[in-house]
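Let us walk through a complete example step by step. Step one is to write down the protein sequence. Step two is to encode the small molecule, 3-isopropylmalic acid, as a SMILES string so that its atoms and bonds are unambiguous. Step three, shown after the inputs, is the structure prediction itself.
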Amino acid sequence: MTHEIVVIPGDGIGQEVTPAAVRVLEFLDLAFEFHEADAGDHVLAETGEALPEETYELAASTDATLFGAAGETAADVILPLRTAVDSFVNVRPATAYPGVDALRPETDLVFLRENTEGVYSGHEDRLSDDLSTLTRVVTSSASERLAEFACEFVEDGGYDGFHVAHKANVMRETDGRFRDSVVSVAEERGVETEEVLMDAFATHVCLDPTQFDVVVCPNLAGDVLSDLAAGLVGGLGMLPSANIGPDRGLFEPVHGSAPDIAGEGVANPAATIVSAAMMLEYLGHDDEGQRIRDAVEAVLEDGPRTPDLGGDASTEDVTDAVIERL
Amino acid sequence: MTHEIVVIPGDGIGQEVTPAAVRVLEFLDLAFEFHEADAGDHVLAETGEALPEETYELAASTDATLFGAAGETAADVILPLRTAVDSFVNVRPATAYPGVDALRPETDLVFLRENTEGVYSGHEDRLSDDLSTLTRVVTSSASERLAEFACEFVEDGGYDGFHVAHKANVMRETDGRFRDSVVSVAEERGVETEEVLMDAFATHVCLDPTQFDVVVCPNLAGDVLSDLAAGLVGGLGMLPSANIGPDRGLFEPVHGSAPDIAGEGVANPAATIVSAAMMLEYLGHDDEGQRIRDAVEAVLEDGPRTPDLGGDASTEDVTDAVIERL
Ligand SMILES: CC(C)[C@H](C(=O)O)[C@@H](O)C(=O)O
Ligand SMILES: CC(C)[C@H](C(=O)O)[C@@H](O)C(=O)O
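Step three: the predicted structure of the complex.
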């Protein structure tokens, strides 16, 4: 069965790391049909719209989308794309690779981030010259859908259970609902959970990341805490992610368009290549996904490195090395 | 002039570290009159209320309050107390002390946290069996008041300027208002500012904390990012804080009541003693504040240590050592 894959390089280093990941995918010679689509700052400049309807429709109708990065328009591109795939969870692994200089080399976490609500609701109002409000939205249904996914993730991955990060001591009604919904689904399924306040998590993950494996969180908590974990494993250049919906997925590195190094051909493609591996696994190609992961790990350990990891290799050198090890 | 000081030990290790700080203050023999007041889990158990009206009124009418910690009732105690002093900013320094095992020993930051609004508005609604909402509130007036304070803080402290952390790419109206208000006050006063997204801050502060000095943030961002910084300097046991209002202040360690070690007499009193130093500085006793800071620093460098810092000294040993060095 042929899979339709939308590829959206976007802006900045997205134009470099996304083709790198596609080269790796093409090398595997699977039954994929790639459709390139456009989005980002440069599209806004040309057409007045950061995310063309056509790109949205492609993402909303194909099996999987591989996205690079967008610049200033990131929110205008990535948030609607997450909606396009009806993504209810953003899976964000943060693993320190052997040989990569990491603040906490023992870090090995997966964040399961709620991907549709919280302060990302889009409901904001300017009530007066002095006052603006935002409606933070939490539903049991979204929290339960996330929890079902988390339980399966934990069972499939052989984890003992998961942590639920929240701030229900302050956001009693909304994060209280989030926590209660998640915990009750887990209880029904016999999956163990432990609660942690999101602020306390920020301290404790620095002091000892091995206390945590899988961390289920509301939208903004997942955003910030996974970026924190990126700081522990050596930077955003290392974090892949998968936005999973009921029928399709959107796969993207956690990093942005890095305008400071864009165009120099030295961006680290690891996060995007591993995002492509997550895409393969999502599409049922587990073995190929694992092959990519192993190859990236081997290259990170002793292969050529891009400047963010202290080397002087190019994106292409690293991609060649990954392909060689496949 | 005699200053009236309210002392609220609270729960758990609050009962140990607060008296320790009071001993240090008493040793300095300043014109202080201490009033002990009660709050916390044990008060809830006894009286049905975590924060007695009397304690609230004391905090709302005296020059300064020194607070220890509260347990499960922390939010019911500390949030109203911040309101009692009309505290519009929570000053949270995060400094790694020489000799203390810190993940990033070069960390030297001060968070200026908005202390009245954001998701701490208290406006939450249960709209249906499935849906709850919280109204996140941002006003220009609160943001400007914070910015005025930040500008003075930067000028007095000899800093180059400050960072403004926010998530205005998603919370465009509310954090947009926050950012614009803060930046425009700073521009008027000729203070330099640099923006940083709160998620990006979480990565970058791990990779290189020396990029930042003073960080101005909305309420929840300040909560989480300062706790993250605690993880970089060796734990919550090290972070003091000052809640500043127009006429009075509330001074408290950032850590909680630590039920796991409460009653053993081994809690690290450093954060509370330095919070007391911040109180002295607030009350105009700069020299004495500095003497306390120097004494704590000296003890942390080569004096007795509590178990959280790898030693086996008691709270009392450490407090004795601080007093000896005064
Ligand atoms: C660009 C932004 C809207 C986005 C988010 O906040 O989700 C980004 O930070 C991320 O984490 O993917
Ligand atoms: C106890 C809680 C309400 C409080 C907060 O969120 O402000 C605490 O985390 C803090 O940072 O002082």
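Step four is interpretation. The pocket of 3-isopropylmalic acid (ligand 1) is lined by residues A 74-75, 78-79, 223, 254; B 169-170, 199 (CB under 6 Å).
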